[in-house]
Design a protein that fits this description.
Blueprint: E1 10-15, E2 19-24, E3 27-32, E4 38-43, E5 48-58, E6 67-75, H1 86-97, H2 103-108, E7 117-119, E8 122-125, E9 133-134, E10 137-138, H3 144-148, E11 152-153, E12 159-160, H4 172-182, H5 212-218, E13 222-226, E14 242-245, E15 257-264, E16 270-276, E17 281-283, H6 298-302, E18 303-308
Antiparallel strand pairs: 1-2, 2-3, 3-4, 4-5, 5-6, 7-8, 9-10, 11-12, 13-18, 14-15, 14-18, 15-16, 16-17
Length: about 300
C-alpha cells in the first residue's frame, strides 16, 4: 500500500513467522511477512478494519455502474488502540475466506430484489423501503428496529418500540445502524462484532446515535474529512467510511443524509450506498442524483464530511 504523504513511517514485526506492520500516523497496515501482501488496515480510535479478501462485484439490476474490488470490512470488539489482536485478525481473514458476509455484503442484503433472511422467526434482511408514503412523500424515521418489528432495549433503561407503519423500512441513518450496529458479520454472537448503538447522543462518543448529523458529531471513530478541512480532497476516504451530506436545503445547513463509501466504480467514480426517498430504499444507483462523491452532481455538491466508525 502506498504511504503517500507519510514521513513517520515505522516498520516492525508483529509475529516473526507471519506478519509485518507499517504505521502512518493513526493508520496501521498489516502485511504478510513473507510476500509483503497487504492483509488489512486499522485506524487508531476506530472500530472499522479494512481487510484483504476475494474480489467482489457490488451492483443492482437497474444500476448503470458497479463497484468491484477485494476489500472486505469488519469491526473490532472495541476501537483500535494501536496493538493488533492477531487472534482477531486471523479469525477475520478466515471469515473472508469462508465468504462470511461482512459489512459491505450485509449492506447489499437490503437493496431492491434482495431475498428475505431470517433469524428464527424474525426477518433480519431483505429488500427495504425507505418509509411509508404519507401525503405523497416518503416518511423519515424508520430505524433498524422498525424494520425488524422489534422492541429495542438500550442501556440505562431506554426502550424504543417499533412503528407498525415502518415495518421493513429503513431511512438513511436507520440503514447504517442496521448494518453496523445490529447485524453480525463474524460467526457466533460473542465476537463483539457490532458498533454500540444509542438513541440519544453521548458526549463521550461511545455509541452510534439515531440521526445523520448526530452520527457525524457524536458517533464513534474518527473524522477523516469535513468541509473546511480539504473536503474537496477525497483521497483520505476509504471503503467502509460513512459519508455525510447536506442534501435537503429545506432544513438549513445541517447534515441530513448519510451513506457508506463503497469504492471506485467501473467508470472511475467514488460511489456510495445509502437509503433514499427517491428510490424508496437502499441503493448504490443514480436515483435522484448520482451516488458519487466526485463530479458536479447533487450528492457531490452536497457532500460535507466522512467518519470512520
Amino acid at each position: 500500500m502506498a504511504k503517500k504523504g507519510c514521513d513517520n513511517k515505522e516498520t516492525g514485526l508483529l509475529n516473526m513467522q507471519e506478519y509485518l506492520h507499517e504505521t502512518c500516523g493513526d493508520r496501521l497496515d498489516v502485511l504478510d511477512a513473507t510476500t509483503r501482501a497487504w492483509l488489512g488496515a486499522l485506524t487508531k480510535g476506530a472500530y472499522t478494519v479494512r481487510l484483504a479478501g476475494s474480489s467482489r462485484r457490488f451492483t443492482e439490476p437497474a444500476a448503470a455502474h458497479a463497484v468491484e474490488h477485494g476489500i472486505w470490512v469488519r469491526t473490532l470488539p472495541s476501537p483500535f488502540n494501536g496493538i493488533v489482536d492477531e487472534a482477531w485478525l486471523k479469525m477475520a481473514l478466515a471469515a473472508n475466506l469462508a465468504d462470511t458476509p461482512d459489512v459491505l455484503a450485509v449492506a447489499m442484503q437490503y437493496t431492491r430484489g434482495a431475498p428475505a433472511l431470517y433469524d428464527r422467526d424474525v426477518q433480519i434482511a431483505g429488500a427495504a423501503e425507505y418509509g411509508p408514503l404519507v401525503n405523497a412523500a416518503r416518511q423519515e424515521g424508520s430505524d433498524f428496529n422498525d424494520y425488524l418489528g422489534m422492541v429495542w432495549h438500550y442501556e440505562h433503561g431506554v426502550v424504543d418500540h417499533p412503528e407498525t407503519a415502518q415495518f421493513q423500512c429503513l431511512d438513511c441513518s436507520g440503514y447504517m445502524r442496521m448494518i453496523w450496529g445490529f447485524r453480525h458479520h463474524l460467526e457466533g454472537t460473542a465476537c463483539g462484532d457490532r458498533v454500540p448503538l444509542c438513541l440519544n447522543p453521548r458526549p463521550d462518543r461511545s455509541a452510534m446515535p439515531r440521526r445523520a448529523h448526530e452520527i457525524f458529531e457524536y458517533g464513534p471513530g474518527v473524522v477523516v474529512a469535513r468541509e473546511g478541512d480539504g473536503v474537496g480532497d477525497l483521497s483520505a476516504i476509504q471503503v467502509g467510511d460513512l459519508v455525510f451530506f447536506d442534501a435537503d436545503k429545506g432544513d438549513g445547513e445541517r447534515l441530513d443524509h448519510v451513506g457508506m463509501y463503497l469504492g471506485l466504480d467501473d467508470a472511475g467514480h467514488q460511489r456510495f450506498i445509502s437509503s433514499r426517498k427517491a428510490h424508496n430504499g437502499p441503493t448504490l444507483g443514480d436515483y435522484g442524483g448520482a451516488s458519487v462523491l466526485d463530479g458536479s452532481g447533487h450528492y457531490a455538491r452536497s457532500f460535507r464530511a466522512a467518519r470512520r466508525l
